[in-house]
Known about the structure:
By secondary structure, this protein is of the alpha/beta class. Helix content is 41%, strand content 14%. The protein has helices at 2-20, 35-41, 52-61, 75-84, 92-97, 102-114, 134-142, and strands spanning 67-69, 87-88, 118-120, 123-125, 147-151, 162-165, 169-173. A five-stranded mixed sheet has the order 2-1-5-7-6, with helices on both faces. The protein has a two-stranded antiparallel ribbon with strand order 3-4. It starts with a helix and ends in a 7-residue tail after the last strand.
Amino acid sequence: RTGWWFAGSAAVLVLSVLARHPYDIGAATVLPERCSTVRARILMQEPAGEMAGVERWARRATRRTALFVVPPDGPESVAFRGRSERGIFVTIADLAQLTYAPEAFVEARRRATLAGVRVVNGHPDASGYAAVDELGAEQRRQAGATHIVFRRRAAPRLALPVAYADSGWIVYELENGRCR
């Protein structure tokens, strides 16, 4: 009985989705033709929390291909990717996800090292993130990063253009020109 109930519930769910969003199910795909239509139908995360200002700015003022170096630890760093709709250089969570993909893990580990993450007693430690100088910023830029984000209270003074700043965060631009 449980199996029939589950199958019936699944069928009702599929039919209700198709009734709401009727797409051609013939030989063509079930997805709409344009990406903008797909984006309009997917509920994206809205900027929220302590990084809302940075996320909102990144979404509005940077290219979709921008790559942000954010503090690699903490939940706000992982959420930044979805809320800003921009790429992240690396997070500690990425390292855990890529453990079983050796080629990708090597690149993620290289990026984590550039982001100031080191291994202490077998665990990643991101306490070196804010200890960056112009050379470190230049290495991140050469690795493809376009912006670097710091908590305002821990931000180093860099000879780079400030792209965004609010009471909690500061974003340096790495893309336009080399570190001076």
